[in-house]
Design goal:
The chain is of the alpha+beta class and 385 residues long. It has eleven helices and 20 strands. 35% of the residues are buried.
């Protein structure tokens, strides 16, 4: 299953939990996750059905003791790793907190080992993050997509005093992950650091083709002049069906690396991969790497090119491809059996190409020229047309 998180009014940890519960994750299961964390203080959750400007939504209230203990990343990792939750939930939760720590450290001029969490290290934030990761797994959501987010404006009070909205950590998280933004419906803190860390770590910011099967609508505690809701659409992934060409110009990479890169791309699902020599700026010789792929594999293959080559960016162009039909047939020649690749148009065979490796092996075994085997197999192929 995949899911699309629509965020017309931003996102916070409790809004994300509320979407998951509204989509069918039982609140008792969330309580079991909390109990599994063995938190130092008793914590409870309660789900309430509310209205937000005419839209029905679920609000999950995370009830924690009024304490202000500050925790470092290693404290939170110890809590999560000490639970009996799945390895996947643990890993994703720690990844979200590590992303948070990185942002906080940059904002405060510290390191992820030394920075201490304030609000985001509180028990409710731990429940929000671990609960969201557990809820996604429980609902069978293997890939999350999300819309652009509205950041809001104004000021917010926190442990450091009065801060501008978006909060510094939120803005750092959004910038570091290149989270797309949209116009805000109004002022106030619409995206919290916890919400920003969750979507930055877990989501891709685009819509993917799906067959919807359920919808979860969640809300936070605020009830402003607009519907303060987030909506989680869950469904079955559909093949995007389209074809794209991914291309990039490279003029500073060791030529020995192109072959292994192309092998990896083809193994990862590329339909085709080729190189074209070009002359680039300042007269330097260069190479254009082209990859043909299904639209569904665009993100994966583009990321692989960025990791495996020296390029700083790729171009993606939708293309239309018309294909002849294909089939295979084995024919018997004077030298032995050879497999033919048949080309079909309107169901009719209009071409037959001998498999080269079959011909080479027979030529070696019979002590004849490869071209003689290819010619013999081709003659048998022409009889099929």
């Amino acid at each position: 299953m995949i899911a699309y998180l629509d965020l017309p009014s931003g996102i916070s940890g409790d809004m994300f939990l509320s979407c998951l519960v509204d989509a069918g994750w039982e609140i008792s299961r969330l309580q079991e996750v909390i109990d599994a964390l063995k938190l130092p203080e008793p914590c409870k959750v309660e789900a309430t059905r509310v209205m937000r400007k005419g839209i029905g939504a679920t609000h999950v209230d995370v009830q924690v003791p009024d304490t202000h203990q500050h925790r470092h990343l290693h404290h939170i990792e110890k809590i999560i790793n000490g639970s009996d939750l799945s390895a996947s939930v643990k890993a994703k939760s720690i990844a979200v907190f590590t992303r948070l720590a990185t942002a906080e450290a940059k904002v405060h001029g510290s390191t992820i080992q030394k920075v201490h969490f304030h609000e985001v290290g509180a028990l409710d934030a731990i429940i929000d993050i671990v609960g969201t990761c557990a809820g996604l797994e429980a609902l069978g959501i293997t890939q999350l997509y999300a819309s652009p987010v509205p950041l809001g404006w104004g000021w917010v009070n926190c442990d450091h005093g009065q801060m501008p909205v978006p909060a510094p950590a939120t803005l750092e998280l959004v910038a570091a992950a290149s989270v797309p933004t949209r116009q805000s419906p109004g002022g106030g803190e619409l995206v919290t650091p916890t919400g920003a860390a969750l979507i930055a770590e877990l989501a891709q910011f685009r819509q993917a083709p799906m067959k919807p099967v359920k919808l979860g609508t969640g809300t936070g505690t605020r009830d402003p002049e607009w519907p303060n809701v987030a909506r989680l659409l869950i469904g079955e992934a559909l093949d995007a069906g389209g074809i794209v060409e991914i291309a990039t110009n490279i003029d500073d990479m060791n030529p020995q690396l192109y072959a292994p890169v192309m092998d990896k791309l083809l193994s990862a699902g590329a339909l085709d991969c080729w190189l074209v020599p070009v002359q680039m700026k300042k007269g330097r010789p260069g190479i254009v790497l082209h990859v043909l792929a299904k639209s569904a594999g665009e993100q994966k293959l583009a990321a692989m090119i960025l990791r495996e080559t020296t390029t700083l960016g790729v171009r993606v162009t939708p293309v239309t491809r018309h294909e002849a039909g294909r089939d295979f047939r084995t024919v018997v020649t004077a030298f032995g059996e050879v497999q033919l690749k048949l080309k079909l148009v309107d169901g009719k065979i209009i071409g037959a190409t001998p498999e080269f490796e079959d011909c080479r092996k027979l030529a070696d075994a019979k002590g004849v020229a490869v071209k003689d085997v290819i010619e013999a197999a081709g003659a048998e192929g022409r009889k099929l047309a």
